[in-house]
Amino acid sequence: MHEWPLLIFTLSMQTAVGAFCFIEWMRFKDREAALAMDFNRRLLGVVGVMAVGMAASFLHLGTPGHAFYALSNLKSSWMSREIFMASLFMGSVFIYTLIRLKGLVLPRLLTAKAAGIGLIGLALIYTMARLYMFSTVPAWKSWHTVASFFLTALTLGPLAVWLTLSMHRDVLSMNRQMNLARSLAVVGLGLGLVVSALWLMGLSQGNRAAQQSLALLKSDYLYAVIGAFVLKTAALGLLLIKGKSRYRPCLLWVLFVITLAAEVLARVLFYVSYVQLGM
Amino acid sequence: MPKQYGFFINSKLCSGCKTCLMACKDKHDLEVGRKFRRVYEVTGGAWVEQGAAWIPNVFAYNLSISCNHCENPVCVKACPTGAHHKREDGIVDIDPDKCIGCRYCAMACPYGAPQYDEKSGKMTKCNFCIDELEAGRPPVCVAACPMRAIHYGEIDTLREKYGTACDVFPLPPSDKTRPNLVIAPHHNAAKANAQSAQIANEEEV
Fold first, then answer.
1. CA–CA separation, A263 and A158 (whole Å)
2. Would you state the torsion angle of the CA atoms of residues A191, A193, A195, A198, taken in this order, to the nearest 10 degrees?
3. Whether the Cβ atoms of residue B163 and residue B13 lie closer than 8 Å to each other
4. How many helices (H) and strands (E) does chain B have?
5. Which residue in A58, A126, B70, B124 has the fewest CB atoms around it within 10 Å?
6. According to the model, what pLDDT value does residue A171 have?
7. A136 contacts in B (CB within 8 Å)?
8. Residues of chain A with pLDDT under 70
9. What is the CA radius of gyration of chain A?
10. Which residues 6-45 on chain B approach chain A with CB closer than 8 angstroms?
11. What stretch of H or E contains A265?
12. A112 touches chain B (CB under 8 A)
């Protein structure tokens, strides 16, 4: 597989969008908690995740020195649009974080700005998905691509924020926020399982190229398919544990690593399923 | 200057000798792996019961394919830099100064035309041997074919002369990209669409 840089880029950016939206939603609902838990410094983490993603995307290029040309074809290229949206989102979050840290603008204005950046993030995920939806690649030209990209953001974003919150000394005051993160991750993982199953079923009923994609997944990547399903189910199981033990950082680390591994495997399966109707 | 160059491939004549491929590799100095022109060996068929006997009902034909310099080139649309462009004579070419080697054009093209050059870190493809055309000579694949199975010229003229067929296995449906390609299909090509044909030299192309 040649697409590891793209895998890191897509997962990082989607996690960043999910985390940003989650942080800002929590801030909107409870400003005091946001102050207590130092949300602004967590935004720096979001910028860091995006920086990793952007750096990885450069590794995919044969001539990274010419990367700035990639914005030249916004008119028709989804890749140009994706790079534009990714740059816009990253730049906006960075400036927003600086303003927050320096306390330069009125909070009410910042709430509107955060909502706008959140929308840019969602648009970024959409452009990321559209980029892969070639009409000659049935495994990618599917609602599964859009759904799975958004579900990754819904799962990994809140989970990553929850993980950092769990290490804070005032963790128990954040029960409500943690429950929200947990609920979002449950929905993300649960729907993710359903969407993946429907995708595989859809391939089995598709044309020649779709059948070839499925045959590839069933032969060379069977263990990865099973692994993705088992890991997502295991993560769901951990999320549904009752009682206070679920807030322990060590358990959350295990949960995050399992979920991340499941998302990586699912994305590997996405990339290797590329089979064109043609040659 | 033609307003749109195109190729005519006579699959009925093609013997699968791959001289076109070798001439192209030689001309463009392509290392192992990169092939601007590829010859697909299509095979298919099975045993069929005839009375008390089982007899083989098999078929095979060859199809030489390069970039089809499409009317609606998906590579040009996909290219984020504008390096992929369609010239006034209809030839789809790459500007190496703009190419960033992102390989998105290769993902988009259903004919496998754009190919990555590891050495330069950029995409490359069939450029219809522009320099040969400028010197008044045909593209090298056309000149080299010992069967005279490849012709080139203004696509309208080729279509007037040879028809408009180009939906032949293993080519994808032509409605999306509208390739500037005319094929004289081998008499077995109809069977390939109806039966489970396959590319016998998958690893080679």
1. 14
2. -140
3. no
4. 7, 10
5. A58
6. 62
7. 110, 172, 176
8. 35-37, 169-174, 243-247
9. 19
10. 38, 40
11. helix A249-272
12. no
Backbone conformation region of residue A92, classed left if phi is above 0, alpha if psi is from -120 to 50, else beta: alpha
Backbone angles phi, psi at B103, to 5 degrees: 70, 10
Q: Which residues of B touch A63 (CB under 8 A)?
A: 99-101, 120-122
DSSP state of A47: H
**Confidence at residue B87, expressed as pLDDT on a 0 to 100 scale:** 96
Q: What is the pLDDT of residues B76-123, one digit of tens each?
A: 999 999 999 999 999 999 999 999 999 999 999 999 999 999 999 999
Which residue of B lies nearest to A78 if distances are taken between CA atoms?
Answer: B78
Q: Domains (ranges, CATH) in chain B?
A: 5-190 (3.30.70.20)
Of B38, B77, B172, the CB nearest to A76: B77
How far CA A244 is from CA of A162, A172, A208, A252, A261, in Å, comes to 14, 10, 51, 12, 25
Task: Inspect the interface and report whether the beta carbons of A279 and B110 lie closer than 8 Å.
Answer: yes
Peptide bond into B138 cis (omega under 30): no
Which residue in B77, B101, B118 is closest to A61 by CB distance?
Answer: B101
Q: Are A209 and A276 in contact (CB under 8 A)?
A: yes
Choose among B3, B6, B4, B2: nearest CA to B164. Answer: B6
The nearest CA of chain A is from the CA of B5 a distance in Å of 22
Domain-wise residue ranges, chain A: 1-132, 134-279
Q: Which of A185-189, B22-26, B45-49, B72-76 has the lowest mean pLDDT?
A: B45-49
SS3 content of chain A, % helix, strand, coil (to 5): 80, 0, 20
The rounded distance, in Å, linking the Cα atoms of A120 and A259 is 25
**Which residues pair with residue B199 across a beta bridge?**
B42
Closest partner residue to A72 (CB to CB) among B82, B112, B173 is: B82
A63: nearest CA partner in chain B: B100
Contact A279 B65 (CB under 8 A): yes
Would you call B58 an interface residue with chain A, using a CB distance cutoff of 8 Å? no
Contacting residues of B for A276, CB less than 8 Å apart: 110, 172
- DSSP E strand boundaries for B19-177: 38-50, 53-65, 84-86, 92-94, 115-117, 122-124, 150-154
Q: Is B173's Cβ below 8 Å from some Cβ in A?
A: yes
Q: ipTM of this predicted complex?
A: 0.86
